[in-house]
């Protein structure tokens, strides 16, 4: 049974999907259990992904990347997340937020910051969430103030949960540059912040129960100074640029859900066909067969919706609505499939070295990041 079948994937995205599968089979799946246990950043696998031309390749060809579009990034995501979500997240976050700089940055910013990421010499990340604010993008408190004497921006505040906050070379940082209560969506701006800037401090957040082969940071900006030209786009446009970016990114997060749901289904299928009780395999019980049938049906519906959404996002056809529907459906299918897969594993479900136990913990995360699913439902309602 081929769950991540090619037929639904537009033809032009199949080649990179096959490359991603080959890479996953060689580098991700065989290391998944060990890397989950160790909870270390997978530097060597990231490097292999850069050498294979699969990391940060959403960046355009003129800047050294392959210019993979959202459908192609989705095809890569489902393959990698099926193999292991923690390692996959580390690989996919290497260019998180770079798209905003590519679309709205100056030529100088693109050459200085994007080219090294596309060429595999640097990695980046996107710093939005804060210790006291997550879902409310217009409520973020980190500030950036202009110092006209030195022609710099001065950042103060904290960020939390930031992928590559420790490992990255620079980040796209979302900070408050205004305080207009009548215009909550015009108070923030985006900046390129090198992680070696004075006043930038980052440490890893405490151990996580899921996606352990990915690392996130707690960042403190203490009078962190960056050149005036590191503003991305125009002052006050940060909220709008970010909202547009997430419309895009969320359909790839749906791919995280698809990969995880496929992993849960495969594990459940294999287990119930091998485990015997009452003198037969448990797959002979109709209740078990129905459980698997429901998992498969939900998986296929989610995948159909997600690929449809990806094409809508690519074509700019009501992207926010489609990305939010796909993200909600696919990530919740992953939690449902993991829950059923655990039940079918009986007591063995809680053995920590089991793939199903890993998947069960990993599925908790895509229902939250890039906007909790409640926020997605708000978007679906409003945009319907
Ligand atoms: C592994 C991981 C990696 C991450 N990587 C990054 C990263 O690289 N960069 C970054 O900036 N952030 C990152 N995040 C942060 C992530 O985007 C936030 O966790 C997410 O936006 C939710 O914010 P919060 O955790 O503060 O939850 P809160 O905003 O405090 O929300 C908690 C819960 O309250 C409910 N809720 C909140 N608002 C509403 C509402 N309006 N309506 C109904 N219910 C609501 C939901 O159930 C929600 O789950 C990451 C998070 C994780 C777990």
Question: Largest sheet, described in full?
Answer: 4 strands, mixed
Share of helix, binned = 40-55%
Number of helical segments? Answer: 12
- As for the number of domains, it is 3
Named CATH architecture of the largest domain: Up-down Bundle
CATH topology of the largest domain: Butyryl-CoA Dehydrogenase, subunit A, domain 3
Distance between the termini: 36 Å
Q: Spans with pLDDT under 50 lasting ≥5 residues?
A: none
CATH homology group of the largest domain: Butyryl-CoA Dehydrogenase, subunit A, domain 3
Bound compounds, please?
Answer: flavin-adenine dinucleotide
Please indicate the percent range of residues in DSSP E strands (runs of 2 or more): 15-25%
Which structural class fits the helix and strand makeup? Answer: alpha+beta
Gross geometry: elongated
CATH class of the largest domain: Mainly Alpha
Number of strands: 10
Account of the protein in words:
The strands form 3 sheets. The protein has a 4-stranded mixed sheet with strand order 1-4-5-8. It has a 4-stranded antiparallel sheet with strand order 2-3-7-6, with no helix packed on it. With 384 residues, it is an alpha+beta fold. It has 3 domains: 11-118, Butyryl-Coa Dehydrogenase, subunit A, domain 1 (Orthogonal Bundle), CATH 1.10.540; 124-235, Butyryl-CoA Dehydrogenase, subunit A, domain 2; 240-383, Up-down Bundle (Butyryl-CoA Dehydrogenase, subunit A, domain 3). It starts with 13 loop residues before the first helix and ends with a helix. Strand 2 (143-147) and strand 3 form a beta hairpin. The protein has 12 helices and 10 strands. Flavin-adenine dinucleotide is lined by residues 96, 125-129, 134-135, 161-163, 211, 216, 365, 368-372, 374-375. Flavin-adenine dinucleotide (FAD) is lined by residues 96, 125-129, 134-135, 161-163, 211, 216, 365, 368-372, 374-375.
